[in-house]
Amino acid sequence: MYDLIIIGGGPAGLSAAIYALRARMNIILIEKMAVGGQIALSDNIENYPGFPSLSGYELMTKFEEHAKGLGLTIVYDEIKEITDNVEYKTLKGAENNYETRSIIVAVGASPKRLGIPGELEYTGKGVSYCATCDGPFFRDQDIAVIGGGDTAVKEAHYLSKLVKSVVLIHRRKELRAEKIIQERLNHANNVSLKLEHIPVSINGDKGVESITIENVKTKERTTIPVKGVFIFVGIKPQTSFLHNVDKDELGFIKADPYTLMTSMPGVFCAGDSHSKKLLQVATAVGEGALAATSAEEFVCDIC
Ligand SMILES: Cc1cc2nc3c(=O)[nH]c(=O)nc-3n(C[C@H](O)[C@H](O)[C@H](O)COP(=O)(O)OP(=O)(O)OC[C@H]3O[C@@H](n4cnc5c(N)ncnc54)[C@H](O)[C@@H]3O)c2cc1C
To answer: Is any ligand 1 atom within 6 A of the Cβ of residue 279?
Structure first.
């Protein structure tokens, strides 16, 4: 019987682990893939205070070392279900079952799909959701990037340094990314913008050969030859396994803003899977700290 089980080894889960271990709680962290979470896939992070520029992987290695230095045990398993037994909770994993007095759900999010013809067919054959992982395969090729937020514009800039040309396709009149990121993209001379356009199909044979886009006003369609399509159109929370906790209409978990306790007593949430405005490493870390502090109070109260 643990005091606390943290589900997810991204920034929120590791921050929660650091706070819980310093409170001398008996905890484990369960991760289904690799510790580090989404940010470990980013080539560069420049807005995490104290670190003007480093890769996501480097930052998350520091988080992991910090937590392990305090004695963190990481268990590799995928949690499929949580059951509330009032006095304690049972977590059903793909490999094992676990019992605990409290839980922090820090399961983050995964990329949203466009849902257009060719996307699924060419995933891994030219369609990608990770510039750091797949960018180097497109050296000296023409590629398209879809999206207009921080991640899309930042990754388009990163890719522009590797590839021959980038066409950035965005459905609105203006990009939504931070101005500093947009300014940097403007200096890249191999990037063109297709604003007020949406992708309608990704075409090819054995791999991607082109993308067809549509002008949102005139409905005119154009086909652009590209070898790669990088998609950054938002994320969806990885919360489908949570059937007995209140969520918003998009599946993000609802929680009390002061404690981060969900609708199931003793179950807290933190990071990108929590319903809120800003999904970033800094907010995930803050919420991990808050959720761990609340979990400690909850466990003290029931013991
Ligand atoms: C390409 C890219 C660039 C980004 N750039 C920046 C940036 O520059 N600055 C910034 O602040 N933010 C950036 N972000 C956003 C940032 O990565 C997220 O806000 C942050 O990672 C959220 O942390 P998290 O711990 O909530 O979730 P995640 O990082 O998503 O971690 C969740 C973890 O939970 C695990 N998990 C999920 N479900 C289960 C389960 N059922 N059982 C066990 N484990 C599970 C996952 O495998 C994952 O490791 C970027 C994101 C991307 C994709």
So the answer is: yes
Atom of ligand 1 nearest to the CA of 235: 53
All structural domains of the chain, each given as residue ranges with its CATH number in brackets, are 2-110+235-302 (3.50.50.60), 113-231 (3.50.50.60)
pLDDT digits (tens, 9 = 90+) for 104-151: 999 999 999 999 999 999 998 999 999 988 999 999 999 999 999 999
**pLDDT tens profile 12-59:** 999 999 999 999 999 999 999 999 999 998 888 889 999 999 999 999
Query: Among 133, 246, 248, 256, which one carries the catalytic annotation?
Result: 133
What pLDDT digit, counting tens, does each position of 212-264 carry? 999 999 999 999 999 999 999 999 999 999 999 999 999 999 999 999 999 99
CA of 9 to the centre of ligand 1 (A): 9
- Per-residue burial over 96-114, b if 16 or more Cβ lie within 10 Å, else e, is eebebbbbbbbbbbebeeb
Q: How far is the C-alpha of 10 from the C-alpha of 141, rounded, in Å?
A: 33
**C-alpha of residue 276 to centroid of ligand 1, in Å:** 15
Is 32 touching ligand 1 by the criterion CB < 6 Å? yes
The rounded radius of gyration (Å) of the Cα atoms in the chain is 21
